[in-house]
Design a protein that fits this description.
The chain is of the alpha+beta class and 447 residues long. Helices cover 39% and strands 22% of the residues. The protein has a six-stranded antiparallel β-sheet, with helices on one face. It has a four-stranded antiparallel β-sheet with strand order 12-21-15-18. The chain has a four-stranded antiparallel β-sheet with strand order 13-20-16-17, with no helix packed on it.
Length: 447
């Protein structure tokens, strides 16, 4: 188009030729997506110098007369602006602006550099790690709790209406069919939303409340964890009948690895009766947070056991109790080094001591290899006694797992653990010095 703005052009011409180059003060770039109520473009706000998402209503002239024509389209489109404009929450896409130019309605929103939740919900797609899935659903629950506290029902929660930022933050978007502050009369009620995620009361065209949005979030969670929606039928009447009458298939049958308490949370969200579901997003988020922390603690315990077992295989720790091993781990780091990576560099200064837990490493003086280290060998002992310059480099010969023990952190150990560590460390150092002396003596005698 030659026009730089939408002025002097009608909406029909605009949509036949493509997006405008500019609407209001916003510069329009490529299309991001298309929804039932409008086209979404990436835009740019030249005043505050930021990327934005600009949603432009579909042609007003296409609105059927029995739905109210042009006035109804304008009203329905700006429902999203009114709903989103009432909300300011980190898990809800922010609204910046809204307006009309000629026959074009537009709203300007936060631009999200990311993708929707849909790729994680496909049956053939990757499953999101359970901890992350709980975090995403919990944050969406908090966003909905905030929305409901402001009198806004979303009514169309589904994977494609949840954006995930590059940093992994979920953000609810598209309030185009939201209901604000008031219940509709029976004459006004009609089935709206996305059928696969509708609550029983939604498909029966009954009044909706916060529990309807939470039901939809439960359906999203079910799909996120299994790759399948709770109910499916190729025909709408069959789908609606299942939503009304059939219990959701047990999550445990699809994912036996998911803890029972988590499966029960999802089942509670999908109850037929609104009174039997979670009554607020806050309560749901609280239960999900509890399970999230339980999983994290379980993973941490498993990691500690694995690390303890790794150290148990090293002769250095033969005389240590499990408690003493755990304390040493708290003052240490298990670090992985790929082949040819430096573990210690000649000339550097630090106060760390290393034990090789897996793999092999080469001690070098300059470019000359002088010794090969294997599992259980210690190196860098002098650094533990004081910060001195390293007299040689140590390079990983294979993938190496090394325990790095920091001298300053050893002071935090219990007295018995410190005594055990320094006794073993001294014995190891004496042994190393004895072997080194013997090698020097043999080299001298041989010459």
């Amino acid at each position: 188009m030659s026009e730089s703005t939408v002025s002097n052009t009608d909406s029909a011409a605009l949509f036949s030729e493509g997006a405008p180059n500019k609407i209001g003060k916003y510069e329009i770039a490529g299309m991001l997506g298309k929804g039932a109520s409008g086209l979404v473009y990436k835009g740019f706000d030249p005043f505050v110098r930021r990327d934005v998402a600009v949603k432009i209503a579909l042609q007003l002239s296409e609105e059927p007369k029995h739905l109210g024509g042009k006035d109804a389209t304008v009203n329905n489109f700006f429902t999203e602006a009114r709903a989103a404009g009432m909300l300011n929450h980190p898990n809800i896409v922010a609204l910046y602006d809204a307006g009309m130019e000629v026959d074009l309605c537009y709203i300007v929103m936060e631009y999200i550099d990311g993708d929707t939740l849909m790729p994680w919900c496909r049956k053939s797609g990757p499953r999101m790690p359970l901890e992350r899935a709980l975090d995403v659903i919990g944050k969406c629950a908090r966003g909905l709790d905030y929305s409901h506290s402001k009198g806004v029902l979303h009514r169309d929660i589904k994977p494609s209406n949840i954006m995930i930022t590059k940093d992994g933050v979920p953000k609810i978007m598209d309030f185009s069919i939201a209901e604000i502050n008031e219940r509709r009369t029976e004459d006004d009620l009609h089935a709206v939303g996305s059928p696969l995620y509708m609550s029983p009361e939604q498909v029966m065209r009954q009044p909706l409340g916060p529990t309807s949005d939470l039901y939809a979030l439960g359906a999203v969670a079910y799909q996120l964890l299994t790759g399948e929606t709770p109910f499916f039928s190729p025909h709408l009447p069959g789908l609606f009948a299942a939503i009304r009458n059939q219990p959701a298939p047990a999550l445990e049958l699809k994912r036996p690895d998911i803890p029972r308490d988590i499966a029960q949370i999802i089942a509670k969200l999908l109850n037929k009766k609104p009174a039997d579901r979670y009554q607020s997003g806050k309560d749901l988020a609280s239960d999900l947070a509890r399970e999230y922390e339980r999983l994290r603690q379980s993973d941490a315990q498993a990691n500690r056991r694995e690390n303890r077992d790794t150290l148990r295989g090293l002769s250095f720790f033969n005389a240590f109790t499990e408690t003493e091993v755990d304390e040493v781990l708290s003052a240490a780091q298990l670090k992985t080094f790929q082949p040819n990576k430096l573990i210690l560099e000649e000339g550097e200064m630090d106060n760390a001591f290393f034990i090789l837990a897996m793999g092999q490493a080469i001690v070098k003086k300059g470019d000359k290899p002088i010794h090969v280290l294997s599992k259980g060998d210690c190196f860098g002992e002098i650094g533990l006694l004081g910060s001195v310059k390293r007299t040689a480099s140590v390079v990983a010969a294979s993938q190496v797992l090394a325990l790095k023990i920091n001298a300053s952190l050893l002071d935090n150990l219990a007295t018995d653990s410190q005594l055990r560590f320094y006794k073993t460390f001294t014995q190891t150092l004496i042994y190393r010095l004895t072997v080194t002396s013997a090698r020097l003596s043999a080299a001298t005698n041989g010459s």
